[in-house]
Amino acid sequence: MIILLERDRLKIRLDKNEAREHGLDAKCIHRPGAEIRAALVSLLQKACAETGFRIGREKLFAQVLPSENGGCVVYFTVMRGLCFSSGGFDIEPVVYAFGSALGIVRAARVLYRNCGQRIYKSSLYTAGGEYWLVVRAFDYDDRKSTRFLEEYARKIGSGEVLAAYMDEHCELLIGDNAIDVIGQEL
Fold this sequence. Notes:
Largest sheet: 5 strands, antiparallel
Strand content: 35-45%
Structural class: alpha+beta
Helix content: 25-40%
Number of domains: 2
CATH architecture of the largest domain: 2-Layer Sandwich
Number of helices: 6
CATH class of the largest domain: Alpha Beta
């Protein structure tokens, strides 16, 4: 069932069979990745065609919540004022330093499980005996993903210049999807 709640908010209720058909169930909330994003895009396209829901150049926040019948409820919210740039997402990178590989593994696993869907890109570097994680997150006012990381690492700074410095002066270990790779594999 597809319901246009407001101009900027859409609700899709899927029963157990529909959710399974799309690969969305209670477990998918804890395993974000390309398959889940593809399922959400498919649902969104169908909903847009049926309701006239429009995103434009704004960013979109998607929530998948389990429902009482074994299915799920998907909410899409247009984030007005947070626009796409012509080159892709305009999300400021934030850099964190970890003193050990174990620290980055622990942080990545927790972040992946709890809010991996908020991570647009993440790259892992090493330099000077430390590990550096560059994260581009869909964090808004609640800063949920960055708060998780701050429990495990020092925030070094943010911005494109710092991210470019990491690219130029550090050894890249995992590019673009470090949180997904570490969170799924370890």
